[in-house]
Amino acid sequence: MSRAFNFSAGPAALPEAVLVRARDELLDWHGTGASIVELSHRGPEFMQVAADTEANLRTLLSIPDSHAVLFTAGGATTQQALMALNFATPGQAVDFVVSGHWSKVAMKQAAPYVDVRIAASSEAGGFRDVPSRDEWKLSPDAAYVHVTANETIHGVEFRDIPVVGNAPLFADFSSSIASGPLDVSKFGLIYAGAQKNLGPVGVGVVIVRRDLLERVGQPRANIFNYASQVASDSMLNTPPTWNWYLLGLNVKWMLGEGGVAEFARRSERKSNALYAAIDGSGGFYRNEVAANARSRMNVPFFLPDAELDARFVAESRAAGMIGLKGHKAVGGIRASLYNAVPVEAVDALVGFMRDFQQRHG
Ligand code: PMP
Predict the structure, then answer these.
(1) pLDDT by residue (tens digit) across 197-245?
(2) 121: enclosing H helix or E strand
(3) What spacing in Å lies between the alpha carbon of 195 and ligand 1's midpoint?
(4) How far is the centre of ligand 1, averaged over its atoms, from the C-alpha of 357 (Å)?
């Protein structure tokens, strides 16, 4: 068996060590005679998995006590609707900074419940930059300000945390969480679907400032109430135990590798190597994102025409590299360089790109 270098945008690569451990524990978890997913979520075994996972995630991300952590069954899109219901009154203003596709999805999910306001947008420029902070028009009465820390499709990333004033900052970190040190205390809420940097699809993480949980929000069922979820340790109903467990293994792996400081170093190294290959290709490969907003996680690029894009995808697959086809909204190629993607994978990709250009350039 040989595993490919996997550049998929999500669901994405998991560390081989995590998969091997999950395989080894699958039939008999720690001498219980059953797999962890065959045991009650309320039993001591899974309760331990859940508690360890939260503790390790708090260590990994330096999450302060001021913030609660939720493990959610819904992914990032679900949270985009729930945060409007939990933290804004009906029709209250919410400011959105629009830096790509997922910022627009966040607005769409909130739109039935709040007054969606676009504080700034880089759409007119084709999402090749993040809107500069001095251009944002924030509403004085906004329930929160929403940003997408890393745009997975357009490959643009906020490299610094913007200061937003009174309204709390809510941020979608689905595709860049745990890729570097972050001051969590600056955020009202951070959320992420797990299927990129945290683990498998089917579970999400919400990190929320506890005082915000006292907001009345809007009429909603208990199951959609973050405060109730926090009070019940994310177990108001049966949680996705397998996904939660795998996420826990992955968080432990990231700690063992040196934590977010180490992943920041690796991310710089990987993304710098790839952008250098693109920029040094004499225009054969193109990435048009502004240098200071280029994502370290998702690198979209284009060849001279769509036929070459398709050929690149096919030949790279034959060379043992998968997941490189660009998102249908933008086309081209996209290489996702999440934490589980080793430096060697990027070195292999860069070598392949050089070789491909020689043959087809
Ligand atoms: N936000 C971002 C930045 C994403 O990349 C994605 C998924 N690719 C989503 C939100 C949607 O996540 P989910 O599929 O978990 O709802």
Answers:
(1) 999 999 999 999 999 999 999 999 999 999 999 999 999 999 999 999 9
(2) strand 115-121
(3) 9
(4) 32
Which of these, 275, 287, 278, lies nearest to 337 by C-alpha position?
A: 275
Q: Which residues, including other chains, have CB under 8 Å from residue 259's CB and lie 6 or more apart?
A: 59, 60
- Ligand 1 atom closest to the CA of 204, numbered from 1: 15
Largest pairwise CA distance in the chain = 62
Ligand 1 within 6 A of CB of 11: no
CATH number, span 17-256: 3.40.640.10
Domain boundaries, the chain: 17-256, 258-360
Neighbours of 245 (CB within 10 A): 25
| Ligand 1 neighbour 174 (Cβ under 6 A) | yes
Strand ranges in the chain using DSSP code E only, listed in sequence order:
5-6, 67-72, 93-98, 115-121, 145-148, 150-151, 156-157, 169-172, 189-193, 204-209, 298-301, 321-322, 333-336
The response to whether residue 103 sits with its C-beta less than 6 Å from ligand 1 reads: no
What is the CA(105)–ligand 1 centre distance, in A? 9
Q: What is the mean pLDDT of residues 103-121?
A: 98
Active site residues: 102, 172, 196
User: Which CATH superfamily, name and number, covers 258-360?
Assistant: Aspartate Aminotransferase, domain 1 (3.90.1150.10)
Global ipTM: 0.99
What confidence score (pLDDT) does residue 1 get? 61
Q: In CATH terms, are 17-256 and 258-360 the same topology?
A: no
Element housing 151 (H / E): strand 150-151
Q: Is 61 helix (H, G, I), strand (E, B) or coil?
A: helix
d(C-alpha 283, C-alpha 277), whole Å: 10
Q: In 3-state terms, what secondary structure has residue 209? A: strand
Q: pLDDT tens digits for 337-348?
A: 999 999 999 999
